Known about the structure:
mainly alpha, Serine Threonine Protein Phosphatase 5, Tetratricopeptide repeat
Amino acid sequence: MALLLSPKLAEAHNNLGNALAQVPGRLPEAIAEYRAALLVDPNYAKAHNNLASVLAQIPGKLPDAIGEYQAAVRANPAYTEAYYNLGVALARAGRTQEAIPEFEAVLRLEPDSAKAHYNLGVLLARAGRLPEALTHLDEALRLRPDPDIQRAVDQLRTARR
Length: 161
């Protein structure tokens, strides 16, 4: 209804994109709605983040998704979800060194994010920075006790010996 009353309403386009993204086979329409939102408001960080999340699901579109996540954090430097998603996308693309600062940004904004500590720990371990990795994995475990995280910490401690 909002789109009928005001076709330029960015939030309405974004919300319609969110709804369409949940329906199998409707990703192209969701993408169109997110892009419509961004035509209305090019600095709409949530629309950039949502567009990126949809693009990341499409084979071959991960570089485009990364660009949209980057646009989201430029538009809103306090948007932790976008930093987190950008870190995940960069890690998926094999760009570990670029992903690390994104998780560090999340932790500057949300120091108690267990998932950011965990992902940062995993990436630091991949980068061979084991003492730092263990610090973040230990913190993730403290914040959210989990047997999988405990196994990762135990494996790293064994590897260090």
